[in-house]
């Protein structure tokens, strides 16, 4: 599931897409392109993108009818998928995504909000002073919301949840028994843009944040919504204070992350992982199940299941200690 909240302005004909990307492609196809999605989520009559050999296996299996890619990568696509060859895949993908979801490019404040005393939640929720609620919000039973907190549009909060003071939440699905502590920002768009000499190109973020049951999100945490897929926090996962989770990150169940950790976009963290304070994890990595990452480590490559690592670049903890006696 990608964002159920942003409106898809499609479908568009494949001829419109080709013209938008300014590419020379002779085709007899007359299909309407229904949506844009990643390699896994795309279906027939969708368009996807393929920009790195790292995703070759996923590209081989995509169900998409069209794929924005390069001349080098196009031969890795299945026969059912027509390549749209461009110079810069990510910039082209951003342009097409903006056509389907123009409302996802920017993140202006939600002017639909109103004081909770004027909403249906005034008799249902225990809340502090200056709490405001946006449109398309659902809040379960036995929930608490602290002072000066803003629940912007497109939020679902489960039962028995506690939302701290001075927090902002939008484009987020929160499970049951979740604690979100003070000063959190959840569901805003991530740090997705492409540098340009004249004007940086902002990438639309059409995903959401999903927080599983029984999680705790520490004070000052920032969790960005997904760009093309969703940002996911698994069940029974606890985040300490001052943590940043970037767009498209997936964190498995029963994971514990200490303070000031940063996880860059599209990395996947397994189940039962422990990450020490001030560790940094680069983007597009896969961290296996039952991994332990020592505080202050810098992770720049994949880590297999059941590993314990330390240092920069992070390596097997025994090797690190032996080298630093």
Question: Could you give the topology of this structure?
Answer:
Elements: E1 12-13, H1 14-21, E2 32-33, E3 35-36, E4 46-49, H2 56-61, E5 66-69, E6 82-85, H3 89-100, E7 114-115, E8 126-127, E9 132-133, E10 137-139, E11 144-145, E12 150-151, E13 155-157, E14 162-163, E15 168-169, E16 172-174, E17 179-180, E18 185-186, E19 193-194, E20 201-202, E21 209-211, E22 216-217, E23 222-223, E24 231-233, E25 238-239, E26 244-245, E27 250-251, E28 256-257, E29 262-263, E30 268-269, E31 274-275, E32 280-281, E33 286-287, E34 292-293, E35 298-299, E36 308-310, E37 315-316, H4 317-323
Parallel strand pairs: 3-4, 4-5, 5-6, 8-11, 9-12, 10-13, 11-14, 12-15, 13-16, 14-17, 15-18, 16-21, 17-22, 18-23, 21-24, 22-25, 23-26, 24-27, 25-28, 26-29, 27-30, 28-31, 29-32, 30-33, 31-34, 32-35, 34-36
Antiparallel strand pairs: 1-2, 7-9, 19-20, 36-37
Core attributes:
mainly beta; Udp-n-acetylmuramoylalanyl-d-glutamate--2,6- Diaminopimelate Ligase, Chain: A, domain 1; UDP N-Acetylglucosamine Acyltransferase, domain 1; 2 domains; ten-stranded mixed sheet; 4 helices
Short characterization:
This protein has 325 residues and is mainly β. It is 10% helix and 26% strand. The strands form six sheets. It has an eleven-stranded mixed β-sheet with strand order 8-11-14-17-22-25-28-31-34-36-37. It has a ten-stranded mixed β-sheet with strand order 7-9-12-15-18-23-26-29-32-35, with no helix packed on it.
Would you write up a description of this structure?
With 325 residues, the protein is mainly beta. The strands form 6 sheets. It has an 11-stranded mixed beta sheet with strand order 8-11-14-17-22-25-28-31-34-36-37. Strands 7-9-12-15-18-23-26-29-32-35 form a 10-stranded mixed beta sheet, with no helix packed on it. It starts with 11 loop residues before the first strand and ends with a helix.
């Amino acid at each position: 599931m990608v964002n159920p909240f942003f409106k898809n302005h499609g479908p568009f004909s494949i001829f419109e897409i080709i013209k938008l990307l300014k590419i020379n492609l002779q085709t007899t196809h007359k299909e309407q392109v229904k949506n844009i999605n990643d390699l896994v989520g795309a279906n027939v009559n969708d368009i996807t993108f393929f920009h790195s050999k790292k995703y070759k296996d996923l590209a081989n299996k995509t169900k998409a009818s069209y794929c924005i890619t390069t001349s080098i990568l196009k031969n890795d696509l299945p026969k059912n998928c027509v390549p749209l060859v461009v110079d810069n895949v990510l910039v082209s993908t951003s342009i097409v995504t903006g056509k389907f979801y123009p409302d996802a490019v920017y993140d202006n404040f939600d002017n639909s909000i109103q004081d909770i005393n004027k909403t249906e939640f005034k008799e249902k929720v225990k809340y502090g002073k200056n709490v405001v609620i946006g449109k398309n919000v659902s809040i379960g039973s036995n929930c608490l919301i602290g002072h000066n907190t803003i629940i912007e549009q497109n939020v679902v909060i489960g039962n028995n949840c506690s939302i701290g003071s001075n927090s902002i939440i939008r484009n987020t699905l929160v499970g049951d028994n979740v604690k979100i502590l003070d000063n959190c920002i959840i569901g805003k768009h991530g740090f997705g843009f492409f540098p340009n000499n004249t004007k940086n190109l902002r990438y639309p973020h059409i995903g959401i944040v999903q927080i599983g049951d029984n999680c705790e999100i520490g004070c000052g945490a920032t969790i960005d919504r997904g760009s093309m897929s969703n940002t996911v926090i698994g069940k029974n996962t606890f985040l300490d204070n001052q943590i940043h989770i970037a767009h498209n990150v997936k964190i498995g169940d029963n994971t514990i992350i200490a303070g000031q950790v940063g996880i860059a976009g599209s990395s996947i963290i397994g189940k039962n992982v422990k990450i020490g304070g001030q560790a940094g994890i680069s983007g597009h990595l896969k961290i296996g199940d039952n991994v332990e990452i020592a505080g202050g480590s810098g992770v720049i490559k994949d880590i297999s299941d059941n590993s314990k690592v330390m240092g920069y670049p992070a390596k097997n903890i025994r090797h690190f200690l032996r080298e630093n006696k």
